[in-house]
Specification:
4 helices, two-stranded antiparallel sheet, mainly alpha, about 90 residues, 2 strands, globular
Length: about 90
């Protein structure tokens, strides 16, 4: 059970669903997000990060990039891009 509702990611999910996109949610404390991403093969991954949890999410991001960087079923090898917004990238640029 989450102790908070991640409004940003929930809003993004709702907008994408309304536009006809398939959306899946993984709660990292309840299932392995890397295993879920490997089985789901998403085109886009997004996650909410709160101050204090950024180190764990940066590590998760590296694991996800490594797991998803190989050949994909449609069109061969796909690049994996990461984008971070908000105050954290400016506060912790590395």
């Amino acid at each position: 059970e989450l102790s908070y509702e991640p409004q940003g990611i929930m809003s993004l999910s709702a907008v994408l669903k309304q536009a006809g996109h398939e959306v899946a949610l993984t709660v990292a404390t309840e299932e392995d997000p890397v295993a879920r991403a490997i089985s789901y093969q998403p085109d886009i991954l997004a996650y909410s990060v709160m101050t204090g949890s950024q180190a764990g999410y940066l590590a998760l991001n590296q694991r996800l990039r490594a797991a998803l960087a190989g050949p994909r079923s449609a069109g061969g090898k796909q690049p994996v891009f990461s984008a971070f917004g908000g105050p954290l990238p400016r506060s912790f640029p590395r």
